[in-house]
Amino acid sequence: MENEDDDPIIQEIDVFLAKSLSEKLYLFQYPIRPASMTYDDVTHLSTRIKPKQQKMEMEIAINTVSPNYCRSKGEQIALNVDGTSNDDTSTYSTKLMDKQIFSSIQAASNTTRYAAALYRKGEIHLTPLHGILQMRPSFTYLDKADTKFKEREAANEGGDSSQDEVEDDIKQVTVRFSRPESEKAKQRRAQSYEFLQKKQAEETWVHLHYSGVKDSRSEHERQYLLCQNTSVADNMELTKSPRDYLSMLMPPDVEEEKEKPVAPSNVLSMAQLRTLPLGDQIKILMKNVKVMPFANLMGLMAAGTESINVLRCIQQVAMLVQGNWVVKSDVVYPKESSSPHSGVSADVLCRGRDFVMWRFTKSRWVVRKEIAAVTKLCQEDVKEFLDHMSIPRINKGWEFMLPYDEDFVKKHPDVVERQNMLWKGIESKLKKVFSISNEDLVSRKQDTSSAPSVVIPGDQLVNIAKAKATENQAQLERTLQKKKEQSKQTSSTVTVLADVHIKEEPVSDEEPMDTSACDSLSNGMVNGIHMDESSRESVNGHTPRGDGDLVTKELKEFVATTFNKQYVLTLRELKRLFNLHLASLPPGHILFSGISDKMLQETVLNTGCKQIKVPFPPQSTATPEEQKVFALWECGDSHDQLRQELLDLFLTGHRLRRNLIQTKLSQKFGDALNKQQVDKVLKDCCVCYGGMWYLKGTVQS
């Protein structure tokens, strides 16, 4: 009784449930706008809604005469979006950004607990909310501007951007037949983002009429927030027992758990993810990420999580590849699933993906065509496997996306050994399934323990090449010395010339190696040709008397032929082409007497070419010697002046856009210049990467 006296009832208020607007009442929120700055006095141009999806869009006018409005920016945005056209499809008909669109997203999927309350004459009238929407600015006009920009870029480049394509244009066409869809597959498809987007696009817009807060129509509609019949007999929803009424206000937690998804989606927050068991957390993370180092995985776990527990769980859903964890194939392709590209079953997809993973345990590189030839799967499926764990490199193949994790291998040798045993079992299964012979396995096998020795840095490759070249040079000099001694016995005037035969070894696609950096490894080599003591006298431009004119003639002929085909060459590329030219010459040719770099450059400058000092990309690692660029300045055709103007443009920057080049050349040559002429000189002197044009040799592919 004392407690009841301390909490007296001050007033009793009747609560009524109004249902006239229960299916039409929405609460709008503007999270990026201060509450003091409302849109009540702003002109609303149009409003539309998709009732089933609860999607709302509003067009609101912008005050273009406000001192805070930048008119030049508004004109620029309108020009970027609509261009110079003025038709019905234009977003901004006034050639000025004079409006903005607000688009809605659902702030809460379940609004049964929310209602709008109206207090009047000692009574509270509640109307349930049909939806809570957050209105945010929509920037779809930027997508339209970006589309127009890409169309202009494609038109300017004239289709030359195909040089950037990594994959083959030819695609295999596979015919597949649809199979009956299971209930689980239907549920997964209904929850997919693609299905929801399609469903949302199918619903038509319903256009609405907007009435301001002070309009008579708005005042009339607000009357429906009051319960029309206030008699108790007609409001049976609230005539419950105290226990039932309390249960309605505060449902038990079990009902909330039923509404939560069993497995979180890609948009689940880390806070929600950490409420799941540790095994489910790791499985979901690996299924989404595909490849992850163990250190990164531990960083995503909650504080205090033991690494031994994480290791126990990760081995159930992932395999160790080059010290990193790659999600298992049966997690990516569960049973009863099929390929969206070819329709093959999950078992076939898992075998093909396991083969790709196994190949990456042997090498940093794989070739897609070889994978497709072994697995007999379509190109799209193979590309999907490779996208999960590797990155394409132009003219090299597919490289594993993460570096070798040496720290994990050193810290957990027992886990590495266990994974190696698992891979041996998988290897034997793959050998039977794909009919791989022992000879193929031995030829491809590099290191069954996935040791980091298979990953050789570039500087080590150069050192190995230098050591090998020094050894070969010493052996060749000993051979030449023996030949000298033999020749002195027969004739004191005989000169021995060493003919070098260059054998081209096949280079594997898996480990491409560039040996062009080893052009001058020692004093005994000039442009890749070994010389003895007598032939070294011809270095630095000094050739034996009587043969100087013939050497100059042959060298000029090579330079003229090369630049008439290439037009622009770096010194490094020119030396490489010269070495290939020497390899094609018969033994004893006059050019084997030795050609120095200085003599080669002088010949280039005397053959109608010119050295141009163009800037290289900031990230370029080319040496000053490698940055020497030569161009054919005059070749006698009608494009000489146009080519010279193009080369002058690159003196100010290492890359240019096609439309800028066209504009500059048009200002110089006027209407006489056409697109075909510009295409001709661009292909002669430049290469295109990523929509930008670079001078040949100044950028690595």
From TrEMBL:
Pfam families according to UniProt: RPC5, RPC5_C
Cellular component, GO annotation: nucleus
Domain DNA-directed RNA polymerase III subunit RPC5 C-terminal positions: 445-701
Database matches in InterPro entries: RNA_pol_III_Rpc5 (IPR006886), RPC5_C (IPR045576)
Superkingdom: Eukaryota
UniProt GO BP: DNA-templated transcription
Listed name of the protein: Polymerase (RNA) III (DNA directed) polypeptide E (80kD)
Source organism of the structure: Xenopus tropicalis
